[in-house]
Design a protein that fits this description.
Distance between the termini: 50 Å
Strand order of the largest sheet: 3-2-1-12-13-7
Shape: elongated
Catalytic activity: tRNA(Met) + L-methionine + ATP = L-methionyl-tRNA(Met) + AMP + diphosphate
Enzyme class: ligase
Largest sheet: 6 strands, parallel
Oligomer: single chain
CATH topology of the largest domain: Rossmann fold
InterPro entries: Met-tRNA_synth, Met-tRNA_synth_2, Methionyl/Leucyl_tRNA_Synth, MetRS_core, Rossmann-like_a/b/a_fold, tRNAsynth_Ia_anticodon-bd
Number of domains: 2
Number of helices: 18
Pfam family, one: tRNA-synt_1g
Strand content: 15-25%
Family: Belongs to the class-I aminoacyl-tRNA synthetase family.
Number of strands: 16
Length: 479
């Protein structure tokens, strides 16, 4: 039975650079899912935010010459711009520098410590600044470089740190991962299972303050700060007010609701293994489901500043507007696999499917309605959207968007076949009947657009009810 409360959260990106299109994909997909669940009557809590601690950020701030606090404030504000730029309906924006989050991270530490899962030891290992983590040999390529950050030098570090007894949770994690619904897509769940079966090693959860001062202090040890991932992962419940839960959000949405996290495919180890083991240790319910999306490439190459192919979503919004960017990310980027994105592809999709597609269709129908109908025809109170809703239930927002544009194509062909603009001149009764049918079907499309293009959905519904054609094109063609 579906729970009445639905909690969804993105990962929280590092604030060491401007927002990029990969995170825009994640936050827009999450927003569409949040809007869908509100649409079907569920209580929804949607969280996003920024991860502001760690060596990578400290080094970036030092390189920029800015005070660390000013640096993280600046980039956190850039990510906050995505809310208005992409019409994101998040309920909260968590920063790991928030005072409440500090307290929550320290409470998570205390609970794991009480469970006997934290111990201190000296350690020598390979450390990747890009990942903010130590690496084993299987994490490195034949040249001794991190697979995820081959351009960064892996450092040899010797430190005395606190460790988390990750190995203790091997069997519990396998039982957790045995449930098919805990990870989407299925092949990512299989990756997680194989990772656990290959053996888990305890991982470091602190850094020496003398080397890295920027972080949450370790309770009871002023010489250490928390490892950025241990701190950051706690955001998924600190954003709900845990542990005090003064407003009851943690109880309503985490304990009693359906919990969903969205993340990139490189996050499996952190989101579905390390974080879940931490929750087990702290005696907190595990995440119900983590949905992993693929990477975005540009021109079939990984995005990088050196190649000059990085796409900033805020720049795209300035060029096209919020909803065309949402449209492209939701329909033309695969929800689970890697996808290639270029500005040429965005423009092509915009012209074909928004300007010439939805926009042109709406203009034709509403022009006919305004000219030949006295008022808006009766709109059915309910429509059978079971097939459409089913795609959202499977977290396949691309399939949902495809279904809308199938409806648009069907309606366009219906106009071509029936030619209501000719029929109305021969038979007013038959012509008005055809046009009324077109208007009702356009309203159905407007309803379906609600989670995807919320502003366009509202605009179309209002125009239909007012029986007016658009004063200007919904989407201006781009040459």
């Amino acid at each position: 039975m579906k729970k009445n409360s639905f909690y969804i959260t993105t990962t929280i990106p590092y604030v060491n650079s401007d927002p990029h299109i990969g995170f825009a994909l994640e936050i827009v997909q999450s927003d569409a899912l949040a809007r869908y669940n509100r649409l079907i009557g569920r209580k929804v809590f949607f969280s996003t935010g920024t991860d502001e601690h760690g060596q990578k950020i400290l080094e970036a701030a030092a390189k920029s010459g800015e005070d660390i606090h000013a640096y993280v404030d600046h980039y956190s504000a850039e990510f906050k711009k995505l809310k208005d730029a992409l019409l994101i309906s998040n309920d909260t924006f968590i920063r790991t520098t928030d005072e409440h989050h500090y307290k929550a991270a320290q409470e998570m530490w205390a609970r794991c410590d009480k469970s006997g899962d934290i111990y201190k030891k000296s350690y020598t290992g390979k450390y990747c600044v890009g990942c903010e983590s130590f690496k084993t040999e299987k994490d490195l390529n034949e040249n001794g470089q991190c697979f995820l950050h081959p351009n960064l030098k892996v450092a040899d570090l010797r430190e005395e740190n606190y460790f988390f007894r990750f190995s203790k949770y091997q069997n519990k994690l396998l039982r957790y991962l045995a449930r098919p619904e805990v990870i989407l897509p299925e092949w990512r769940r299989e990756e997680a299972v194989n990772f656990v079966k290959n053996g888990l090693e305890d991982f470091s959860i602190s850094r020496e303050k003398e080397r890295l001062s920027w972080g949450v202090p370790v309770p009871g040890d002023e010489t250490q700060v928390m490892y950025v991932w241990f701190d950051a992962l706690t955001n998924y419940i600190s954003t709900l007010g845990w542990p005090e839960d003064a407003q009851g959000n943690f109880k309503n949405f985490w304990e009693n609701g359906e919990t969903v996290q969205t993340a990139g495919k490189d996050q499996i180890r952190f989101q579905s293994l390390m974080w879940q083991a931490m929750l087990m240790s702290a005696g907190v319910k595990n995440t119900d489901k983590v949905v992993y999306h693929g990477f975005i490439t540009s021109g079939d190459q990984k995005m990088s500043k050196s190649l000059g192919n990085v796409i900033n979503p805020l720049d795209l919004v300035k060029e096209y507007g919020p909803e065309p960017v949402r449209y492209f990310l939701l329909r033309h980027v695969h929800p689970f696999e890697d996808s290639d994105v270029t500005e040429e592809k965005i423009k092509e999709a915009y012209n074909a499917n928004l300007a010439n597609g939805l926009g042109n269709l709406a203009s034709r129908i509403l022009t006919l309605a305004e000219k030949y109908l006295e008022k808006c025809p009766k709109i059915p109170e309910q429509t059978d959207f079971n097939e459409y809703f089913g795609f959202f239930e499977k977290f396949d927002v691309q399939a949902a968007a495809d279904r809308v544009w199938e409806k648009i194509s069907e309606l366009d062909k219906f106009i071509q076949t029936t030619e209501p603009f000719k029929v109305i001149k021969i038979s007013e009764t038959e012509g008005k009947k055809l046009i009324s049918d077109l208007v009702v079907r356009l309203y159905e499309i407007a309803r379906m657009l609600n989670p995807l293009l919320p502003n366009t959905s509202e605009t179309l519904k209002n125009l239909i009810k007012e029986n007016k054609k658009p004063a200007a094109p919904l989407f201006l063609r781009r040459d």
